[in-house]
Each structure stands twice: as structure tokens, then as C-alpha cells.
């Protein structure tokens, strides 16, 4: 896997991912309404959310659960000193579907956290405490 970044001025960099997607990462994201993209740490948090959400939905689909939506909310805490690394992250899954089994959703979250989500496992090895919970929303 590869990525390329090029300085776009001030605290911003344009990037191109290995798969050809392009965007901006901007260290000024929280300081300026002129920022061109999320901060590097926001991208890491979104990457974690994407990784674990992909797992949970895929596991539920393989278990023949009728999932119609999954929203994942992440809340992270960072160290007060430099480097301002993540110290803890809480992941809350809101899984919508028809006749979803709580046991299956719990198992999907557990498998993602303990076995499949590379981002989660990597962050935990770096000392980040990651917790999870979920809610099920029944839809017609």
C-alpha cells in the first residue's frame, strides 16, 4: 500500500491514496474555516470507524441478518501533552434492521474488535483503550 502527499500551503497537504482517491488533510482543520480537509488525527479516527463498521456490517450480512443501516459514532480522548496521541476511543454502533438478533450484533462487534479490525488492533497495541457498545433500531 502506498500514498502520496504534496504540500498545498500553510498546514494543508493534498493526498492521493493507493486506490487513486484524492483529497486534503489539513492541520488547521480546527483553527480555520479555510481548512481544506480534516486533520490527520480526524482521518485516523474516521479510518478506525470505517474499518470496524465494514467488519460489523459484513459479519451481520454473513449471519443473514437483515441490516438496512449502520451508523457508527466515535468519541476520542487525546493526551494533553505532545505528542497528543489518542488515549481512549469509544465506538457506539447504531444498527438498524429487521428482526436483528442482539446476540448476533454483539458477536459482530466483538469479532471486529478482537479479530478483524486492523486499525483497532493496531491502535490498541499502541496503548489506546478502545471500548464499544451498540444499540439496535427495528425498522419496518
Automatic annotation (TrEMBL):
InterPro entries: KH_dom-like_a/b, OsmC/Ohr_fam, OsmC/Ohrsf
Gene3D superfamilies on file: 3.30.300.20
NCBIfam families given in the database record: PRK10738.1
Name of the protein: Predicted redox protein, regulator of disulfide bond formation
Organism for this UniProt entry: Reinekea blandensis MED297
Amino acid at each position: 500500500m502506498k500514498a502520496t502527499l504534496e504540500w498545498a500551503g500553510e498546514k494543508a497537504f493534498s493526498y492521493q491514496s493507493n486506490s487513486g482517491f484524492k483529497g486534503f488533510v489539513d492541520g488547521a482543520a480546527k483553527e480555520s474555516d479555510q481548512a481544506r480537509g480534516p486533520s490527520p488525527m480526524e482521518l485516523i479516527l474516521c479510518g478506525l470507524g470505517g474499518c470496524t463498521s465494514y467488519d460489523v456490517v459484513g459479519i451481520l450480512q454473513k449471519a443473514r441478518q437483515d441490516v438496512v443501516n449502520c451508523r457508527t459514532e466515535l468519541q476520542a480522548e487525546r493526551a494533553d501533552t505532545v505528542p497528543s496521541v489518542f488515549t481512549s476511543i469509544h465506538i457506539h454502533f447504531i444498527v438498524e434492521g429487521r428482526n436483528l438478533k442482539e446476540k448476533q450484533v454483539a458477536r459482530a462487534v466483538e469479532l471486529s474488535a478482537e479479530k478483524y479490525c486492523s486499525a483497532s488492533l493496531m491502535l490498541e497495541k499502541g496503548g489506546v483503550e478502545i471500548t464499544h457498545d451498540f444499540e439496535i433500531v427495528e425498522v419496518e
